Write the structure tokens for this entry.
Amino acid sequence: MSALQQGGTALKAVLFLMLAILCFDAMSVLVRLLLPRYSVQELSAYRNVVGVLPSLALMIYTRELRLRGTVLRITRWRLALLRGGIVAMAQFLFYSGIGYLELATVSALGQTNALFVVLLSVLLLGERVGPWRIFALFLGFAGAIWIIQPGSDAFSLYALYPVGAALCYAVSMVTVRMFGPEVSNGLLYLYSSVAAAAGAFLFAALTTQFTPMASWADMGLILTMSLVGGTGVLFIMLAYRMGPPSLLAPFGYFGILTAFGVGWLFFGEAPIDTLFPGVFLIVGAGAVIMWRENRRAGAKA
């Protein structure tokens, strides 16, 4: 591939990531609008059941996902289903955070995902962590604590929701590496998405009652919220298949700015005192991790 083609592919990867961030912002706004009338459990169930359709449609169209015979078999199918349950829990925690916190605060605390990925890689995969990564872990968690402010009058248990969601998403990301190359991304996604949909629907059925749709407008908002969320996941998948994480990770922090803008535009939120300076520590920790990843990749090349 020529340098020009590589540059074009990298640009497309960044574009897909930006589109994913905008999709998730739109989903967050719709969740906030719907929460007064529908529970978190209901919205999470709808999102996981309906929102998988865009990704499945594309994977079937590209023949990455083939619904034929033994192709659907996975040796570690229990782990694949468990990942789906963890994703459903992450979705529930994320939506819960949206209901009580400013959108920019949810986005900033969600960036702790990169820190949990490093920590879980050590605990679950036995990876070695050098002093720079250890420094990044402490720096990022210090930033999260600064935003959460435990022990102060500003502290809220609800601030733990997006951190818990980040932990669950990190578990899902790290456990992907426990599957061999013979398991396709499409098949693994099928297992996790079906399990997430089933888990979210079962959790909602056991913990709340489904509210009758108040109007056709609400039905349209829920359908849009689910499809937009699923499309965001699709864009994320396309972005990371086109470009390396070292290229895309810095652009992920763009989501903090867009969430801040969307929260201010639709809900009049401007949590400057809450976010700063803790958000700088979280972003700095992610930058340190990506810098080390680039150094390691360069050393291996």
